Amino acid sequence: MPHCDQVTNASTPGNAGTVVVLTIALDGETPVLAAGRRYAEHAMVMSHQAFEPHVAVPRLLDLLAAYSVPATFFIPGFAAERSPAMVEAVLAAGHEVAHHSYSHRPPTSLSEADDRREFERGLEALDRFGITPAGYRAPMWSASWRTPELVREYGMIYDSSLMDDDKAYVLQTSHGDLAEIPPHWSLDDWEQYAYLPAPHLGYHINNPLAVSAMWTSELAATRRYGGTFVLTGHGFLSGRAGRIEGLRQFIESALEFGDVKFRNAYDVACAALSDVATERKKHERVDVDSAIYPDW
Amino acid sequence: MPHCDQVTNASTPGNAGTVVVLTIALDGETPVLAAGRRYAEHAMVMSHQAFEPHVAVPRLLDLLAAYSVPATFFIPGFAAERSPAMVEAVLAAGHEVAHHSYSHRPPTSLSEADDRREFERGLEALDRFGITPAGYRAPMWSASWRTPELVREYGMIYDSSLMDDDKAYVLQTSHGDLAEIPPHWSLDDWEQYAYLPAPHLGYHINNPLAVSAMWTSELAATRRYGGTFVLTGHGFLSGRAGRIEGLRQFIESALEFGDVKFRNAYDVACAALSDVATERKKHERVDVDSAIYPDW
Amino acid sequence: MPHCDQVTNASTPGNAGTVVVLTIALDGETPVLAAGRRYAEHAMVMSHQAFEPHVAVPRLLDLLAAYSVPATFFIPGFAAERSPAMVEAVLAAGHEVAHHSYSHRPPTSLSEADDRREFERGLEALDRFGITPAGYRAPMWSASWRTPELVREYGMIYDSSLMDDDKAYVLQTSHGDLAEIPPHWSLDDWEQYAYLPAPHLGYHINNPLAVSAMWTSELAATRRYGGTFVLTGHGFLSGRAGRIEGLRQFIESALEFGDVKFRNAYDVACAALSDVATERKKHERVDVDSAIYPDW
Amino acid sequence: MPHCDQVTNASTPGNAGTVVVLTIALDGETPVLAAGRRYAEHAMVMSHQAFEPHVAVPRLLDLLAAYSVPATFFIPGFAAERSPAMVEAVLAAGHEVAHHSYSHRPPTSLSEADDRREFERGLEALDRFGITPAGYRAPMWSASWRTPELVREYGMIYDSSLMDDDKAYVLQTSHGDLAEIPPHWSLDDWEQYAYLPAPHLGYHINNPLAVSAMWTSELAATRRYGGTFVLTGHGFLSGRAGRIEGLRQFIESALEFGDVKFRNAYDVACAALSDVATERKKHERVDVDSAIYPDW
Hints:
CATH class of chain A: Alpha Beta
Radius of gyration of chain A: 19 Å
CATH topology of chain A: TIM Barrel
Distance between the termini of chain A: 39 Å
Oligomer: homotetramer
Number of domains of chain A: 1
Strand content of chain A: 15-25%
């Protein structure tokens, strides 16, 4: 089970500054297959995803190395099995690999049994690389209420799927405390770059320089209000040449602020859990009156 | 029943300048639940909405305080019951709270009986905070012809759902006069920032600085043509750090014009009702020939 | 029947320069009712359209007067009947009014009998104002192959619905020659500004200053390649304050080119028909093999 | 069968610089008819496509001639048959014409028999112009796994439909080696300019100057990372005046880099095939467990 041996310096007192967490999903073919098994027959669609292990990941690792910036890679078990060399390369570069399900099917669409199987099969796939992941992110962030419970039950110490804050906090589950490292749609490359008509991943093609300018001003705002800046990328999207340049520009702008630190999710989780000043929350489910909201 | 004791200075003669009305909906989980009760099981979706009371509202109140700018908060009864501390904080900051239905289901989709229940249950929820709202806004602005009648019947003096003008006017109902404070899609943060795939709230993620620039030039146009500048925000959208900065930029630009005044909806309604120069309208329903428009 | 008495100077030889045709649809409630009669019950939707006769048209007429610029207004019969004062104001300002169907239902969705009834009822509605329209535009530009035939049969001399050119040309029908004044999606305000979820008119809210900059560079390109610059606006969209300012900016930029002339569609049609150098076309329908394109 | 007689200089050693391949689809009415035969009755929709042979192609050829830039035109057989003069004009200007199916129906939606018929009928249509195409691109890039096999079987030496790289590579099929010249959505004009509601081609209208700026920065990134810059245009989209100017601006910016060369797809294919340093790939189909991805 992952544990936090040394006090990390992600956000401990006396160590001011905003923390940026680069989280990069390496989904491979999984988001496409989760939309329909038939897409395995579509060579173009498969090739669109295969760009990731072959071209995108080496490029992303080079970029991170050039600026000595750590990242957390969320890799579904299916993608890890299909591209073991990719996983090895990420590990060799010293980055964190975390749990991102086995097949990229959203927990909200699964039975409890299937949900558990996804957790276990994903862990088994990572285990073959010697990885005991410290954290989890739900596919499409589609966590159910069961999700944080399972994350803790299966021995992980953080989740990164929920959006009720923009600062890492401690979530109290029936299995113990968990750090929540909250993502958001506005800091995700999918909403900027995903373009695929069938399956419909999105109709987004933005100028990477405009995206990097937007994220930089978002980071400036985070510096003003405090919080954990959790950026989400996807290998098959952000590994394209122009988008790598956009990411480079963002990293350079972030470093130019002078007080911005890049940390992986594990370090941020440990810092949040060990800091008594971190907010502690319990989730309260909404009690819904079926007379008022009758539609299922 | 709300009444206008003192002549307000929102747009009285001899008091030139353009009036900006900041209207902020605090919908909480209601727009999501109105799209389907099943979303109560989606922890991420619920957390996406829960950002509002916990993080967004304090931030919005701080921003308004920093510029001494009043706002009108439209709060569905369900959201008020779920986050009483949020309502108290808005009241403590001296802002207006107005009626925004109970459950955020659009009047156009409700029977007359359900529509009345929504009005009453929403009023009851606000009454528990000692609030007698002066005005109403339909969820998603989806007013039916019954809506202005109900607003006046239930003792409110303004509505803010209709778009046939860009200047506050007096609407004559069978229960008496009502001020209409017209909103518009182009001055709403939803169309700029709402991104949620399921339920589908929108696919919008614009750069807050571009949004503030657009709204500032819209305000410049309103200064030229006259009118009431009714801006609409939503806590869970505009309370994010970067968007708060966009709103700050808009407020600063508005104040820099020198002749722009911020007023809440109540003040604008009283000024409109008490000013004989305000346009008086009666709505004429369209008489539709079913031979020409056969489809229901 | 409309005829061209005097040689117009829209694009006659020796009269160089690019011609801009401002075409403005005043659809009123028709596009919404054509999407479903039930929307007549939606007060907000109806008010969204009612902005046009009450606020937008006076503002548009003022703008055109300020720059002495002519325009062609396409008005469905239903909208003319509902807002006679609006039609009178357009006529009093000296602008052309042209045929835009009766109910804004697309010809491609109508039987031949209904198509004819639309043509006739639209003509009757305009006739009550003493208007004998010189031209026609199909609702949503959705012309069928029957459309140009009907336009000529009913005595009009131009159509403005087809997109196979960006220069006015002569279309030979079985009833005689017709001028075609081609519009295009890229020069239409609908694709920039239409935002209404139900009925779904679009999700477009662009910055009017960006729109005017885009149209200005499109006009610069038309000056380079030749052609007729046919801009399409809609009262309920472009009559909003910020968009009026966008349109003003476009008009000013166009006039600054020095060699750009504004003409109405009638003048352009007469010039095209009387100029032997105008291209003459006959439409050739596509002969489609149902073995290759089996789906209807 | 096409062969590569002379060593081309597209990307041979000692010949540094980035290669731009301008690929232009001349689809005519085919994408619209493939969406439904009924659209043959829609005069506006047909005219929207008819802009291509009559106006767009001459303009595109002039532009290419002005900068002495070669291009590869992908023309479906149906479009070639309908506009023979267009094909002749492309050939007379010295450009490459390549295979783009017969009817623009995607291979992924066809039976093997229909897929073969499309290949053959498309080849026959081009053969009437004396064209033996060297390469193929699937309609909508919707290649199936059968596609590269068929391309090689029918004697062509390159495909341009797959996205697993951004550099031309060699794809090993059971019929021999093939060059793959990979396109991408982000370098396609469809995602910038296609606007047609029915059939729904897209809702895209971007400013051509913004598009050219984006593509120029993408090209700058390709210069940094290496790769083949494959730009895709469509006659009926990019032949509009403003977009031609956007394309001109891109070409000028590309030439200003000093080390960018324009080559047609044939030259790039020959260079890739003859260069031992070119990456060789075999596609590995994904083995999908139907227990995990049960939905078809």
